[in-house]
Amino acid sequence: MSKLLLTNIGMLATPLGKGPKKGAEQGEIQIWKDAWVLCEDGLISQVGTGPAPAVEAAQVVDAQGSLVTPGLVDAHTHLIFGGWRQNELGLKLHGKTYLEIQNAGGGIQSTTNATRSATEEELTAKAAKALDEMMSFGVTTCEAKSGYGLALEHELKQLRAIRRLQEEHPMDVVATFMGAHLVPAEYKDNRAEYIRLVCEEMMPAVKEQGIARFCDVFCEADTFSVEEARQVLEAGLKYGLRPKIHADEIEAIGGSQLAGEIGAISAEHLIVCPPEGIASMARGNVVACLLPATSFNLGSTFAPARDMVNAGVAVAMATDFNPGSCPCLNLQFVINLGCLKYRLTPEEVLTAVTLNAAAAIDLADKVGSVEPGKQADLVIWDAPDLDYICYRVGSNLTRGVIKKGVIVR
Ligand code: NIG
Ligand code: FE
After folding, report:
1. What is the whole-number distance in angstroms between the Cα of residue 172 and the centre of ligand 2?
2. Residue 344 located in a structural domain
3. Beta strand pairing status for 3-14 and 30-40?
4. Are residues 354 and 399 in the same domain?
5. pLDDT at 1 over 90
6. Which of 148, 296, 298, 325 for mutating ligand 1's site (highest number of atoms within 8 Å of CB)?
C-alpha cells in the first residue's frame, strides 16, 4: 500500500460533499487550520487537525505552514487542436469581431484545417505539453472537447488523442464530443446534411468506441440555432452522451433556456445570459460553467455570476483553453477574474474551480474536495491562505501538486 502523509498545513480550504453547491452553500467551505491529510493508495483516507499521527511506511511531505486545497478541475477546454491563431490578434485590434473573423473563414474553420492536417501523434504530443502546463498551475482533472475535426475521421482522431492522454498522462481527462462546433465550409450550403452526419454517423461511432461521455454544441448566432442544438443534444442522449451547451456567449438566442429544458449537465459561457435563462437553468439543475478568461480575451462583458448564485444555480469556472477565443490555460488567472470581475468571494471561487467544476463533468463523487474517500488530488500553494491566491495576479503560486497520492510537481 502506498501512503503519503501531508503535514504542517497552515490552512486547508475545501468545499465538502459529492454534489454541486448552490446559492449560499457555494460560499460555505470548510477551513481547517494546522491540519494534515493522509493519502492511501491514491485516495484520501484521513483528514485531521493538530499534531499529525505517526504512520508507518508513509512518505511524509511538509506543507511548511502553507495553504492546501483540492486539486483544481478545469471543466471546459478545447485541448486538442492543430496550429494557433495569433494572426487574429491584429484583425481584432483593427476592429474585427469574433463572428466576423469566423464568417470570413478564420476562427474555428482555420483551426479545423490545421487539425485535419495533423496526425493523431502530433495532436497527442501537443496536448500533453498543455496538460503538463495546466498541472503546473494546480489542475489535476480536466475536460477536453473534440470539435476541430468536423468530419467523422478527424473527430474520432481528436477523441483518440484524448484517450491516449487518459492512458499516458497523470491528469484525469474526460472527453466531450463536439462535432457540432461549426458547420464546416464544405457543408455551408447544406447544413441539414452536416447535422445528419453528426447525429447519424459520428455519434453512433463515438458510442461504439466508447470514447466520449458528453456531447456539446455551439448554440450561437451564425453557428447552430436553438432548434439545431436541440436536435443535436437529443440525438446525443440517444447515444448515451450527456448534453452540454455553449450558450449565450455572444448573443442570447435561447441556449440557456434550452439547457434547462433538456436537462443539460452544464451550460457554458453564459456571458449575456438573460433572467429567463438563469431561471431555466435553476429549474433544470444545470451547472453554469463560466469562462471569464474568454470574456477577458474577447473584450466582452462578464457573465452575471452573482445573479446565478442568487438564483440557486451552481456556478463553476473553467478556462475554455482554445486557440481562438481563449489562448489561456491558467486556471489561477480564472480564479483572479472570478473575484475581480464576477465579484464572487474567494470561498465561492474555490468551490467554482473544484467541487462545482467536478459536478459539471459528473465527477463530484470522486474529486473536487478534500475528504476521506475522494481521490488524493491536492495543491500545496506558495501562499498562507485562500485570499492570497485570489489576490495575487500573474504568478504561478503552486508549490506542489499531488495527483492520486503521488507528487507530480
Ligand atoms: O468556447 N465558442 C466556441 N468555441 C470556443 C472557441 C473556439 C475557437 O475560437 O476556436 C469557445 O469560445
Ligand atoms: Fe468553449
Report:
1. 19
2. yes
3. antiparallel
4. no
5. no
6. 325
